[in-house]
Amino acid sequence: MESLKQELHETKNTTTVRTPKLKMMEKLTFGLGDFGANYSWTFIASFITIYMTDTVGISAGIIGTIILLARVFDGVSDIFMGTIIDNTNSRWGKARPWVFMTAPILGILTFMLFNVPSGFGQTGKITYVFIVYFLISVIFYTANNVAYSSLTSFMTTDEKDRVSLGSIRFIFANIAVLSISSFTTVLVDNFGGGQQGWTITAAIYGLLCAVPLMITGWFVKERNVAEKKNEKQKTSFIPIIKVLFANKYFVLAIILYLLWYLRQTETGVRIYYATYIFENPNVMGILSTASLLPLIIGLFFAPQIVGMYGLRKSVNAGLMVSVVGSGFMMIFSENLTGLVVATVINALGLVLLQAGLSAIVADVGDLVYWQSGVPVQGSVFSLTSAGMKIGQGLTAALVGWALQFGGYIANSAIQPESATFAIKAMFIYFPLLMIVLMIITVAAMNYEKFMPRIRQEILEGRVGEDRDKSIM
């Protein structure tokens, strides 16, 4: 009890200070949260289309449109959630209570999405899916994920710890993604297939979503809570938006997040690629392993590489490797062994960007605070999260639209050539274009050399009009 009181006292009285190095146990506890989050988000992103088309009987085009509409609202709700976090003042801190409280609801809604009532007519089914998906995407996952992501900034000011948190977070995330991709179809089949199989699998995944997130929300600590420059300073929605969009690095961070998630059309179409290119749905597990295992291993080494060469140079060098891997994927698109090797190369190239994404956003939050004096730790993550959600919405919609435009026939063993091309385009060609655009975006983010002096000024309370404007 005394330790809890002490923790609450520390949280309540935090300011922008140089924080102590994080212990590995707390880093792991933080990372566990992304393991849980993916048992909602990746499960949905990877399997909602094939579940709805092949089990519920809703067309891929309608599902893609539902997802896109919800994600547009989702992007807006992200922005409001960031403002809510920045204005939250609880004894637990700003972000932690949102992570903890929304987790069980998110797990329940995930279960409900994969249990569309069979007694509903077509209109009723579409309405049900839209409402449940809307609640997940626009409200509860938004509240949970924006709060969780912003913990990277609230927990520490140390650059290496931020990269380490990003690496550990995505190690857990990729373990979850790999497990979901490899075992979901197996679980569904073993639990009886059809709706029964999806029901039991979704119940397990709902628990795996809620419990880890609740552990993260309960046990991590917030130590770096930026204070207002003065008590009259406005931290409502409109002033924060103006401050953020006045900063070019913030805009670039949103673009980077958008491109990163647009690249992931390969995730949404992977089950189709395995089923209709290699004529074996279980090949999805092989492709998922080739894509995710190199990321998991590489993330252990990412903080050391970034520490040696710097974040920007490391990330762009990795993306160039990914371009090479994508080129080999095109060459070996129908050769499983060659495609697996090419996918491994592609994945290794993406390691450093995935590790550095959260650190980039936290840095941008510091930079905006230094320039404006307005605390934006929650809002900066909410708007990049909006880029993520819109990107994921477009990704799911693009997969659905591409399949529909290509003439995909649900449950047909033989697909038209146009459908096969659409599957390949979403798996290889479109992601390659996004990687090229990410290289250009990262090259423009040249703030890194200024950050040591900026952080020192923040420590000294020299922010807003009191900052040294000659630094940038």
TrEMBL record:
<feature type="transmembrane region" description="Helical">
    <location>
        <begin position="339"/>
        <end position="362"/>
    </location>
</feature>
<keyword id="KW-0812">Transmembrane</keyword>
<feature type="transmembrane region" description="Helical">
    <location>
        <begin position="240"/>
        <end position="262"/>
    </location>
</feature>
<dbReference type="GO" id="GO:0008643">
    <property type="term" value="P:carbohydrate transport"/>
</dbReference>
<feature type="transmembrane region" description="Helical">
    <location>
        <begin position="282"/>
        <end position="302"/>
    </location>
</feature>
<feature type="transmembrane region" description="Helical">
    <location>
        <begin position="426"/>
        <end position="447"/>
    </location>
</feature>
<feature type="transmembrane region" description="Helical">
    <location>
        <begin position="56"/>
        <end position="74"/>
    </location>
</feature>
<feature type="transmembrane region" description="Helical">
    <location>
        <begin position="95"/>
        <end position="114"/>
    </location>
</feature>
<keyword id="KW-0472">Membrane</keyword>
<dbReference type="Pfam" id="PF13347">
    <property type="entry name" value="MFS_2"/>
</dbReference>
<feature type="transmembrane region" description="Helical">
    <location>
        <begin position="168"/>
        <end position="188"/>
    </location>
</feature>
<feature type="transmembrane region" description="Helical">
    <location>
        <begin position="314"/>
        <end position="333"/>
    </location>
</feature>
<dbReference type="GO" id="GO:0015293">
    <property type="term" value="F:symporter activity"/>
</dbReference>
<dbReference type="InterPro" id="IPR039672">
    <property type="entry name" value="MFS_2"/>
</dbReference>
<dbReference type="InterPro" id="IPR036259">
    <property type="entry name" value="MFS_trans_sf"/>
</dbReference>
<keyword id="KW-1133">Transmembrane helix</keyword>
<protein>
    <submittedName>
        <fullName>MFS transporter</fullName>
    </submittedName>
</protein>
<feature type="transmembrane region" description="Helical">
    <location>
        <begin position="200"/>
        <end position="220"/>
    </location>
</feature>
<dbReference type="InterPro" id="IPR001927">
    <property type="entry name" value="Na/Gal_symport"/>
</dbReference>
<feature type="transmembrane region" description="Helical">
    <location>
        <begin position="28"/>
        <end position="50"/>
    </location>
</feature>
<dbReference type="GO" id="GO:0006814">
    <property type="term" value="P:sodium ion transport"/>
</dbReference>
<feature type="transmembrane region" description="Helical">
    <location>
        <begin position="394"/>
        <end position="414"/>
    </location>
</feature>
<feature type="transmembrane region" description="Helical">
    <location>
        <begin position="126"/>
        <end position="147"/>
    </location>
</feature>
<dbReference type="GO" id="GO:0005886">
    <property type="term" value="C:plasma membrane"/>
</dbReference>
